[in-house]
Amino acid sequence: xxxxxxxxQPLHPLxxxxxxxxxxxxxFSSENIVPPRFLYEKLDLFREKRQINSYFIDLDFLSDKDLxxxxxxxxxxxxxxxxxxxxKHKNLNIEFSGNLILHDDIEIIRAKVCPCCLSxxxxxxxxxxxxxxxxxxYHSVELMDSCIVCSEQISWRKxxxxxxxxxxxxxxxxxxxxxxxxxxxxxxxxxxxxxxxERLTFINKSDFIDCDLLTLNTMxxxxxxxxxxxxxxxxxxxxxxxxxxxxxxxxxxxIRILRxxxxxxxxFLDNLNLRxxxxxxxxxxxxxxxxxxxxxxxxxxxxxxxYVKPIKxxxxxxxxxxxxxxxxxxxxxxxxxxxxxxxxxxxxxxQGRLHIKEIGILIECQEWHIKFWIKKGLLENTAEDEFDDxxxxxxFKKFKRTYITLKELQKKLNTSYSQLLRKDIIPVSGLKIDGxxxxxxxxxxxxxxxx
Length: 451
Ligand SMILES: [Zn+2]
Ligand SMILES: [Zn+2]
What we know:
This is TniQ domain-containing protein. This protein is mostly helical. The strands form 4 sheets. The protein has a two-stranded antiparallel ribbon with strand order 1-2. The longest helix is centred in the C-terminal third of the chain and has 39 residues. The model has no long low-confidence stretch (mean pLDDT 89). Bound molecules: zinc ion (2 copies). The site of one zinc ion has 6 residues, from helix 6.
């Protein structure tokens, strides 16, 4: 057998225009009734790697010797063999049917097939390698990733692309009709690879985002991660933690986001409820990190920036109002202080310090209340001063951000210690808590009341 395999084989099927090399070699082996392992073992590629643990070699580097060997044995030209692989490009990109895409956009372990395409011509279309192609636009059916009879996964590791180990030929499988938008999405991806010439349903930007394949794939992966949290749905599928039909369900949500561009995306952002700083921060950060991995999220980033502009402006305005209130507060203080105290206060303030007497005026309490809070560690006394009576402006601000006295609270709400207690709101300090002279609440605890 080994010697025989160095010669051209009796049957030499012609490659199809959109056929994958690995698929072609499996088809070639099966037509000539040669175990594919025998054929692959002849490649330099596996002499180095020694073990054949996958029949997928479209992304591998084939030496000239290997190309020549394959051309000779299949009775093709070297260029025909070369045309079936996926060439590497500069940086992280690879070239896929005239598009630049990323390695990650391709599923290299599991394989999906369209049973209807197979029953017309039994060969493996390269485009089925793209992770986000889940339906066949020619037959409007879902691709399948496992045997319909015994449920075994179709995979490049097993090489069971056409024929399952149970003896079932995938081309004989009953196909499942795909949801319309999934088919429309596949039409769109096929058209990017020049494999679809019919009229597209998503023709213009208001039907669906208009972008190149690299951008589409990256957005698909990014959004797939955002809607499932944690790992991307591609990774979850690869690891087997979601099934192919669950993957298709998730994909429907992604298509919805990219449809009616940018309305669908804006609705998605609306649902995230980006009102607080950390939400904005995390989404923005993950957009930027994802973008730097070689893909392209430009449309998502640009629309995001337009979307959050008014939110950020509103936040900046709130910040400004807060500072204005602070200035007013200090002005009121200056009004109360005597001339000589005024001067001292201004001098200290430029040094970033406050006297507890001034704090007392600002939050309307006695000096001993403040000393009590300092002793308890509620107000940090970090001023490098030998006198305890000086507090930094920073720790005073922090204190104001974190706590509120019952007295201040009562200016906003008609409430009392016992009323708050009934709502399970307990102060951090006060007579019945620690013997303190004034009830002090954590602002976070009373947030619900202030809304
Ligand atoms: Zn098909
Ligand atoms: Zn089977």
